[in-house]
Amino acid sequence: MSAPATQDAYTPRPEHHFTFGLWTVGNPGRDPFGEPVRPIIPPARVVHKLAELGAYGVNLHDNDLVPRDASPSERDRLVREFKAALDATGLRVPMATTNLFSDPAFRDGAFTSNDARVRSYALQKTMAALDLGAELGATTYVCWGGREGVETNAAKDPRTALGWYREALNFLCEYVQSRGYDMRFALEAKPNEPRGDIFLPTTGHMLAFIYTLDHPEMVGLNPEVAHEQMAGLDFSHGVAQALEAGKLFHIDLNGQKPGRFDQDLRFGSDDPKGAFFLVKLLEGARWPGMRHFDSHAYRTEDEDGVWDFAHGSMRTYLILKARVTRFNEDPEIQQLLGELRDRGGGGRGRPADRVAFSEERARQLMAETFDLPSIRRQGYAYERLDQLTMELLLGVR
Ligand code: GLT
Ligand code: MN
Ligand code: MN
User: Is the CB of 263 under 6 A from ligand 1?
Assistant: First the structure.
């Protein structure tokens, strides 16, 4: 296999907090036009392989580990075997989630299905999955509303659906409190696929929704690179807004070409520049969360290719992280950034630059004269800054 032959500065280690889902490395390569091309890798084997590659943890949906129709004793055996693999390797389970999309029962959504029985079943299934997550030590619970949407708006009023969605999340927050679990929810947006349109389609929509919940402090975001790019948005802007609001509870890293189906490509493989600015943002903020890869190997691959994919995902992150350090230490880049900060002669943090309102400040501003002809003439040197960034990324700086 493909395991790292040599150790170097980009060799993943548990302290880097890289995680994968059972469903990501275990993805058998099924697509809408073709059958699976690889056998599903048993969970215990995934755990051992990820540990060997230097990952910190493994995440799961309820049914990635326990099949839908498993008996209670079968469930207990599967969980026991999985825990034994975790204990043997030291791998953790930082995040858990519920599969609310595969079962035909969820064809009209789970929490927003028009069928009240489905809405109740979705709550039951999620409570059981929360119990499983808590048993495995997970402290983050991802909610991806994969089928919470429509093909036709004739089917339901989105306001009704959002009301049901809100009630479900309120219920689940109280369930977590009632059980004393140390668990926070991270909501994941996606604009479409598998539904024609999915409710709360972007990270920004989700963020606004959180503040309408009964326990907004328990609920944050799990933005995914591919999902924001499918909507044609700049991913790092959504992540920045989540960070600034203290709502970045988790992140799904992968790669994607804008405007396509959800490709879930290896992190950084399609838009290395976007990935660089994302890593710069996360590392600059010293964000303490898990770097989770929600992606899978190309359908062309066999199991060796799966581990190449997993290793490559982590390695690319670490290479980009090293490039960020270099960006922060590059004298020419830093000089340009310094000039921007000092623009207007002030520099950051000068009290007179603050825009907090006071009568006096308003009067001062009204009386100020600006040298607009000079402001209008002056460029920003972003061409130079971006070219320097590109040269750094392309390895010639
Ligand atoms: C599914 C989806 C992902 C979600 C996973 C969590 S499941 O693979 O495509 O974006 O994060 O439910
Ligand atoms: Mn995806
Ligand atoms: Mn995801």
Answer: no
Say how far residue 108 (Cα) sits from the centre of its chain: 25
96: left (phi over 0), alpha (psi -120 to 50) or beta: beta
Residue 129's nearest CA partner among 98, 93, 153 is: 98
Question: What's the rounded mean pLDDT across residues 336-348?
Answer: 81
Residues across the chain: 397
The DSSP code for 187 is E
From the list 8, 17, 48, 61, the catalytic residue is 61
Reported pTM: 0.96
Token output for 268: 């950084």
Is the pLDDT at 353 greater than 90, yes or no? no
Q: d(Cα 329, Cα 332) in Å, to the nearest integer?
A: 9
Identify the CATH number of the domain in which residue 100 sits: 3.20.20.150
Residue 252: CB within 6 Å of ligand 1? yes
Classify residue 249 as left (phi > 0), alpha (psi -120 to 50) or beta.
Answer: alpha
The residue among 328, 350, 382 that closes a domain is 328
